Structures
1.
Amino acid sequence: MDEHELGRLIGMLQPAPSDWTRAARELPFLSAELDDILNRARGDERFRRALRTDAGSALHEQGYDLSPSVVAHIMRRLPDDDPQS
Amino acid sequence: MDTPSRSAVATHSLVERCRLGDREAWRDLVEEYSRYVYAIIMRGYRLSESDAEDVFQDVFARVFERLETLRDDDALRGWIAQVTRNLCSDHLRRAHPTEELSDETVTDLDERLADLDMALAVRQALVRLPAGCADILDRFFCRDQSYRTISAELDLPAGTIASRISRCLDRLRKEIGGRDPTPAASGET
């Protein structure tokens, strides 16, 4: 394998964004909290709206201390608002 | 090319500690495979950034949840690759339910994934090099830093960067080939 090929292969594995890896490290240990938050968001429209307005503050007010990447993960899983409501 | 990054014993220990919920072990596992998973998603399946982030998190969540099902700890790399491929395929099927992948696309994908397996083997050999070598190669080839930037950040004479990179590549080639690395050149360890 020549230097050019080695350099090409080294360059193929770029670091994943640091907030992604941080979330990947944290999420498995937060499953109970995540389930609580998402279950509550499903049943509590007011809480859901607060999350959509300012998720970080809404969660902090409820006593959760979560990193931005974990908050982003929650927001991607937030249930859609019922279009009939 | 299949150059293990760690001995079978160490891999078994890492997996076992992860199964027991050891956060430090899990952090090490994510650290070791995050680039590989990211590359499969982005370079292999070419998902968009936002879709990729979702799949990336799903991969590590599933790996954590299902570590119990991994029967051969030495198969960790292949298993993580398979989990990533499955989740990428699931994502594409959901996003484009009526589209079938052509044979040509599947062949291209297989070639890209085989390339990434080689890249991982090189990466795992790279991290076995002395830290100075691993760092300078990562800066130049992965982080796309110029000689001048590397020189400034590592406080090294600019005129020595090219030769250091060349020597480190030589050591890497020997590491991949399973031979002992050459003795450290000055300032590289």
2.
Amino acid sequence: MRLVIARCSVDYAGRLTAHLPSAPRLILVKSDGSVAIHSDDRAYKPLNWMSPPCTLKEEDGRWTVENKAGEKLIITLEEVLLDSSHELGVDPGLIKDGVEAHLQELLADRMEVLGAGWKLIRREYPTAIGPVDILCRDDEGVTVAVEIKRRGEIDGVEQLTRYLELLNRDPLLAPVKGVFAAQQIKPQARVLAADRGIHCVVLDYDGLRGIEDDKLKLF
Amino acid sequence: MKFRVERDVLAEAVAWAARSLPARPPVPVLAGLLLAADEGKLSLSGFDYEVSARVETEADVEEPGTVLVSGRLLADISRSLPNRPVEISTDGVRVIVVCGSSRFTLPTLPVDEYPALPQMPTVSGTVPGEAFAAAVAQVATAAGRDDTLPVLTGVRVEIEGDRVTLAATDRYRFAVRDLMWKPEQEGLSAVALVPAKTLLDTAKSLSAGDVVSIALAGSGKGEGLIGFEGAGRRTTTRLLEGEFPKFRALFPTEFNSVATVPTPAFVEAVKRVSLVAERNTPVRLSFEQGVLTLEAGSGDDAQATERVEADLEGDDISIAFNPAYLLDGLAAIDAAVAQLSFTTSTKPALLSGKHAPDAEADEAYKYLIMPVRLSG
């Protein structure tokens, strides 16, 4: 990651043309070759940028970034105030289903959200076709498989249906009921779940996390 | 099957029974309305596994029979028919609807695949239809709409002898209404949690009847069912499960100040002032002797103030409310004068109605409303 703070003007020539008059700006040159020009506001979206793959040609006081389509970002540098490079290495990335995993963890800790007297058997209960998010027992001792999603859609119900079919073949577990738990459940998914005898539960992520809004409540 | 019925009677019955038809039927037969004609009576039934509806009317039955047709289609058709007697008959697997010079041929659905409607439980008692509808409307307004708290989407029905208590809350307000009814047996004590939306629809649709019978069955798990019947209409709905919050202790009994304000002027003023209250911002009420000042908006945004005549007993108080919740409460008390009782500006305020400024407050209906914290 290379950071350059410089007084510069920028011209873009390609599908559209743009011109940024001379001003102090932050130029980011990333390891994939992409170049972005930022002003001192807004959290995202640079003033101008070139996505990879592209090449940066540095001449005295003039940088030219060109992509395969021949579009050019021309930066005319008048005064360089800072030029510093840092090795950041490979980013672990945004864990995409981080919320799902967290919901699973929270719910496993607080089975009473699903019903009084419910007990956890285990998280990530292994089956031949993949792990079931949560396997538990309800207050009557019946085995329940819980599928957790952020957004409850048809494919989540299908997935749970497959697990249930498999789990119900196990004489030690059968009969196994299904619970489809999600932060929001699409009406179609709700209909399908109801038709298959699967109970739907809408989860309150903030509530489970113990994050309360600061509104005054009666209880 | 063959019968004749007046168009208005048919349209009304079909429209009512079709209410409970599912929007997305998981099996085709559930989109159907079951028509059964026998001995001068026509009954129509709809069911979506949660709510069942059955209505019976007089009809000129020539040939008894049972048939299942698309409810939505029949509702649309019966609503649009000219005002003439309607004749409905079967012809093989089709149903023929004839009215004046219009004629419809509808496909039927297999009757034997239609699920059995839940049995109406034994009647527990009766209430006047109109009073019941009014009471339910007063309470259901406070029910929650958030699916993450399913218990709060219901109205709690508590039966204790000849008294019925209805209660609902969304954690920001709590509405409780007591009404008298005629129980079938003495010393009856029961509780139920009824989905608020269904209860509201049901009570409204039965308000025309002199009496509504309420039938409560099975406190046991999974079989909780409540039935309502009046004026030839009968509906059942599955009960919600869960522990409803204990509410009696939430209602304060001692207050530092009590204000009375004429309801119409109060409502008008709140509506006007809240025009500048952006989403999630409150209206601020300052009560002093003789006058209530309402304010909304702050800082650089639009602002509004209005003064309304009001009586205050006790300490002056400044308090802020969500205008929608306040208006819901003011509409629900259904009284000429609103009485607001306060302890402090961060504790719930009690709203009740009075028919005249010097009358006693109505004890039957209470609307507890949580204030909004004022920043800065």
